Amino acid sequence: MTYLDYQASTPLAPEALDAMLPWLRDGHANPHAAHRDGRRAKAAVELARDHVAALMPPGGMLAFTGGATEALNWAIKGSDGPIVTLPTEHAAVLDAAAATGRPVTMLPVGHDGLVDLDAAATLIRPGTGLVAAMLVNNEVGVIQPVERLAELAQRAGALFLCDAVQGYGRAPVPANADLVAISAHKVHGPKGVGALWVRSGVTLRPLLHGGGQEAPGRSGTLSPALCAGFGAAAMLLATRAAADAEHVARLWDAAMARLGTDWIVNGSGERRYGGNLNVRRAGLDVARLMSDLRDLSFSAGSACASGSGRTSHVLRALGLSDAEARSSIRLGFGRYTAERELLEAVDRIDAAARRQRVVA
After folding, report:
1. Are 161 and 181 in contact (CB under 8 A)?
2. What's residue 303's pLDDT?
3. Confidence check: pLDDT of 219 > 70
4. Residue-range domain boundaries for the chain
5. Most Cβ neighbours (<10 Å): which of 214, 232, 286, 299?
6. What angle do CA 76, 79, 81 make, to 5 degrees?
7. What Cα–Cα distance (Å) separates residue 188 from each residue in 183, 237, 333, 346, 348?
8. How confident is the model at residue 310 (pLDDT cuts 50, 70, 90)?
9. Please, what is the average pLDDT of the chain?
10. What is the pLDDT of residue 121?
11. pTM for this predicted structure
């Protein structure tokens, strides 16, 4: 099996597993308890917090959550006022914004997936409460100009929420953000833990009630094991940043060189994270392709909407037709992807796509 679905979830780093095992096996104490075992568990959580926060801007606090979906919901539902966001955001942002009942304005994006900054300067106006934008898009890998959007939000007196789930440790988190959501399992950590970074002075209403164990107001017992795994993954992001970036760039160049001109990249070809290769081919039957290549794990779109039968809302927002969106696939790769296995997968995908055309 060749795994090429890094945007849905990344392989667990061995170092993260090693950091978790002692707490899964022996560290059963509640980290919020006052006795010695509880204090030891608490120390492990705080060490992990320091490692995760080291890749965040200064001047804020980091609260662990059950994942990025919780973090995004907390940031959106815990704030006030009209919301401005992009139609290419993750469903956790779009659905949470809709659930608030507050006015929601969508900023237009171009065919390249990048926000229209002129329109943003007009639509992010005084009275806006929250502007939410993704650092690296989970479906097409486009890197948004989030620092500029944060500037526009601040000028209007609004908070800026950055969904950094796909970009954390790989692209700079905007130093002028007010709220930043991240997830461990997108960066070779465990599933079931994420975090919300909150700038000092920003207050949010709690999303969960029942103890307020995490400042600034998140309730629930933390898992030292999951936190430790997240912390270890964050340490690796910091120490391996240059090597990971070089490896991903090499994989991108190799894959692009191998794909023929019949394949078209969705979204900007320049302003993007190279570990996300979202491409389309005219007339491609993606369901058949995936059936023919069952030992390759890749995506026909966002894993969060798979099985819905709907075309990707992100690709539609870029102006693609339903036919173009349905003929698109996403290959996600990174640290643990060997160049040989990626190129073999690309060759097999291309060959299977060509066979479809011959049969047709």
Report:
1. yes
2. 44
3. yes
4. 2-8+241-359, 14-239
5. 232
6. 100
7. 10, 9, 12, 23, 27
8. confident
9. 96
10. 98
11. 0.96
CA–CA separation, 13 and 336 (whole Å): 9
Residues belonging to the active site: 304
Residues 80 and 287: beta-carbon distance below 8 Å: no
162: amino acid identity, one letter: C
CATH no. for 14-239: 3.40.640.10
Bridge-based pairing of strands 2-3 and 296-297 is parallel
**Are 179 and 197 spatial neighbours (Cβ–Cβ below 8 Å)?**
yes
**Gap between the terminal Cα atoms of the chain:** 28
pLDDT tens for each residue of 46-100: 999 999 999 999 999 999 999 999 999 999 999 999 999 999 999 999 999 999 9
Opening angle at CA 270, ends 264 and 274, nearest 5: 80
Q: What integer is the mean pLDDT of 116-135?
A: 98
φ and ψ at residue 240, rounded to 5 degrees: -105, 10
Tell me phi and psi for residue 281, to 5 degrees.
-140, 125
Distance CA 231, CA 50 (A): 8
Q: What percent of the chain has pLDDT over 90?
A: 95
Q: Which residues pair with 328 in a beta bridge?
A: 280
Give the long-range contacts of residues 349-355, CB within 8 A, separation 24 or more. Answer: 349/289, 349/293, 349/296, 349/298, 350/258, 350/259, 350/260, 350/263, 352/289, 352/292, 352/293, 353/262, 353/281, 353/284, 353/289
Task: Please tell me what DSSP assigns to residue 178.
Answer: S
Would you say residue 104 has pLDDT above 80? yes
- Would you state the CATH architecture of domain 2-8+241-359? Alpha-Beta Complex (3.90)
Higher pLDDT, 157 or 260: 157
